[in-house]
Write a structure and sequence with these properties.
alpha/beta, 5-stranded mixed barrel, 8 strands, 4 helices, about 25% strand, single chain, about 35% helix
């Protein structure tokens, strides 16, 4: 019985260590892909997108017209010590019926809780930015399409599926994080992706160390039991 009680955690510690090594390799591969795609020229939007994953980390460019109809605000976005909104505006791409959502950046929330001024530039603009694939938070309450229709212009978070279901506007399966130096943007300070495997390597060493400690403990107990049996 004591042997079983030690073999089980040793096996678990080894499995967890191997899992962390695998996670480190995933981060290493992600960093490699990020570096490669950062060197590519901006991809011109307009054609249908079969696999949005191939756009992750890519620089995108589109020429078109921003549409006020369909603009929403993502609430509770923090910048420094202030609370505000991210402004999400559909851009109708020139020469097509395709639209892409553009995150035009952060604006502060009015102190009195009144309307938020987020005007759009008139006429055609050329917009560049980084591809972003939005996902719901880990704990998303009231996230059905029916609930989203009642959110009005202020949303707690964004997914493309909810946006299309709530607004009826078909959009490309990617959001563009607008570059700070392009027309019509607000405060565009986007966190930079920097996948690092070091944390996972540290966790792997920790789990393997636990396995080694458990093994040494098992060996010591075995020697003690062997001495008592003589």
């Amino acid at each position: 019985m004591p042997t079983l009680l030690l073999v089980l955690p040793i096996s678990l510690f080894v499995v967890l260590g191997v899992w962390q090594i695998d996670r480190a390799e995933q981060k290493r591969e992600q960093a490699r892909i990020l570096g490669q795609r950062a060197e590519l020229p901006a991809l011109e939007l307009g054609n249908p997108i079969a696999d949005p994953e191939v756009l992750r980390f890519r620089k995108l460019r589109a020429r078109g017209t921003f549409e006020a109809e369909g603009q929403i605000l993502i609430a509770n976005r923090r910048q420094a010590n202030r609370i505000g909104f991210h402004v999400i505006t559909p851009l109708r791409i020139q020469g097509s019926d395709s639209r892409v959502l553009v995150n035009r950046g952060w604006i502060a929330a009015p102190g009195d809780g009144g309307p938020v001024a987020a005007p759009i530039p008139a006429g055609e603009v050329t917009m560049t930015g980084e591809a972003h694939l939005p996902a719901p938070p880990a704990l998303a309450l009231h996230g059905s399409p029916e609930a989203a229709k009642d959110w009005g212009r202020r949303w707690p978070y964004l997914t493309l599926e909810l946006y299309t279901a709530a607004t009826g506007i078909q959009v490309l399966p990617v959001v563009v994080l607008q570059d700070p130096d392009t027309v019509g943007g607000f405060l565009c300070l986007w966190p930079q992706e920097s996948p690092k495997e070091g944390m996972h390597i540290g966790y792997a060493i920790q789990w393997f160390a636990f396995a080694l400690i458990a093994l040494v403990l098992w060996l010591r107990l075995s020697l003690v039991r062997g001495s008592d049996g003589r």
